[in-house]
């Protein structure tokens, strides 16, 4: 069985990982730290590319940086033991998470700000052994033996300077991707099918014709659903912008989704803010109540459903994790599409019969 650290050659290898050495290298003026990351996490990619890789090139063998992929079963187990051993609070349980000495650094802001200074300080004091994470030595030991005899696809792909490259592709095994979280991903697939079915029914039944008036009860339902959607989108926007861990609940792994490259539109705008703007627009159009406003509202809802179909597809088939908050917003959008495209029955104009 490949350990979480040995898989780093496929998903992430940090320059001069130091896997050839044991954790007890402090006597050689070496600083050891452990990074927990996910291959689909944009914040992890930023930290590794802009901070950790340059540091490994700068310090060479003086920095023994071990990477653990939390998307694997072994990595997830080791991460859980580290969180428990260091009493990491619930609101800080996200990746990238770096353990050094007795400190825990989290996120793409804290790690770049504090880790370089910590390394300088520990080197000046004579080095630092690896953090006391239960099971870490047992995980590293098989990797050291394998690295001495293996040169296949599992081995780190190092450059001439000793640093390695980040992955540019993900696994194409769809069943394996879904199997990472069969319950959560199965729910995402059900929601995806429902969204496509609602969109198809709206088009098939020609339900996109609008009239000047609409039933008050339906308008109230649209307002209520839009307010709930705004709360959901607002929470996701906060999680993505503040780079904190989300409260995920018993189904799915929303933090993996929020830390994936698909959590930002064009790599810049958090998707949660797109939802916030969309729900505000829907609420505003509903408040205006004119025919033109309802047409604009339907256009916004239709775009929201199309975008939700795209995002919901990514969760089980590409990311391999589902987000209960995202699925809730997707369901709300599907219901809104049905309500906004369902006008009050209005008598149709009947042509007079010819004599």
Report on the structure:
It is elongated and about 75 Å long. The strands form two sheets. Strands 2-1-3-4 form a four-stranded mixed beta sheet. The protein has a two-stranded antiparallel ribbon with strand order 5-6. The protein starts with 7 loop residues before the first helix and ends in a 15-residue tail after the last helix. It has twelve helices and six strands. With 355 residues, it is α+β, with helices and mostly antiparallel strands. 42% of the residues are buried. It is 54% helix and 7% strand. The chain has two domains: 142 residues, Glutaredoxin (3-Layer(aba) Sandwich); 167 residues, VKOR domain (de novo design (two linked rop proteins), Up-down Bundle).
Name its key features:
2 domains, 355 residues, elongated, Glutaredoxin, two-stranded antiparallel ribbon, four-stranded mixed β-sheet, 12 helices
Summarize, please.
The chain has helices at residues 8-11, 42-59, 73-85, 107-124, 136-149, 174-179, 182-204, 216-242, 254-258, 271-288, 291-319, 324-340, and strands spanning 31-37, 63-69, 97-100, 103-106, 264-265, 269-270.
